[in-house]
Design a protein that fits this description.
It is built from 9 helices and 10 strands. With about 250 residues, it is of the alpha/beta class. InterPro entries: AAA+_ATPase, ABC_AA/LPS_Transport, ABC_transporter-like_ATP-bd, BCA_ABC_TP_C, P-loop_NTPase. It comes from Pseudooceanicola sediminis.
């Protein structure tokens, strides 16, 4: 197996006397999609927030390609290749779909809003933006304000923004939340495409077992903020302990 691209080592966060994530140690590898599951309140999103930097750890480490990111801000972690999508879409609603993607491409190029550049730079950036637009099948929506997109297309646009940042590690927090049955497969297909790139590491928080079965190379189970189980999806889902605390026989796990 390849060397891990991302490691959490005894990662912990306390809120007063409550330990929301307790000494979670995991390694994530390129070419692997890991799904993080657990009951409500298990610490899944909090664990994600610790990795991406939205929360600061009380103790433990987040290490990316040998670099300790633990005390870095989210923007610095993004610079080191951590890409994060949230349960709620995070877009520029008044801007068009293409302009949203172009801003992400400019940010990746370190240009931000700076306009005093040769026009050829913007031509290259526009071409890259159009590439990600087509890759996520949003070409027909290019000039539509992001706020007017159906929810499913907003989620696709968020995937496009992540792709435009060209991270090494993709983090998706319930990417199909609130989506119709018609739109969810389109987003999952985009994630499956990212997974096929063996240089990328994908982490997914999800509670829908059909999504877990379709995408997971590995499953991590959190319970009360602690790592309960991890490993091959079939083996983890067959574990009686996992059934008892989370999956349950009603989920039809076999």
């Amino acid at each position: 197996m390849t060397q891990p691209s991302l490691i959490t080592r005894d990662l912990t966060i306390r809120f007063g006397g409550h330990v929301a994530v307790n000494a979670v140690s995991c390694a994530f590898h390129p070419g692997e999609l890991t799904v993080i599951v657990g009951p409500n309140g298990a610490g899944k999103t909090t664990y994600f927030n610790l990795i991406s930097g939205q929360l600061s750890a009380s103790s433990g480490q987040v290490i990316k390609d040998g670099v300790d990111l633990t005390r870095m801000a989210p923007s610095a972690r993004a610079h080191h290749g951590i890409g994060r999508a949230f349960q709620l879409t995070n877009l520029f609603p008044a801007l068009s779909v293409l302009e949203n993607i172009r801003l992400a491409v400019q940010a990746r190029a370190g240009m931000g809003w700076r306009m005093l550049r040769p026009v050829r730079h913007f031509r290259v950036l526009s071409e890259k933006a159009e590439h990600f637009l087509e890759a996520t099948r949003l070409g027909a929506r290019a000039h539509q304000p992001a706020a007017l997109l159906p929810h499913g297309d907003q989620r696709k646009l968020e995937v496009a923004l992540l792709m435009a940042m060209e991270p090494d590690v993709y983090m998706f927090d319930e990417p199909t939340a609130g989506m119709s049955l018609d739109h969810a497969p389109e987003v999952l297909e985009l994630i499956a495409g990212i997974k096929r790139d063996t240089t990328k590491t994908v982490l997914l928080v999800e509670h829908k077992m059909e999504v877990v079965r379709a995408l997971a190379d590995r499953i991590i189970v959190l319970h009360n903020g602690e790592l309960l189980a991890q490993g091959d999806p079939a083996e983890v889902m067959a574990s009686q302990l996992v059934r008892d605390v989370y999956l349950g026989k009603s989920e039809g796990v076999a």
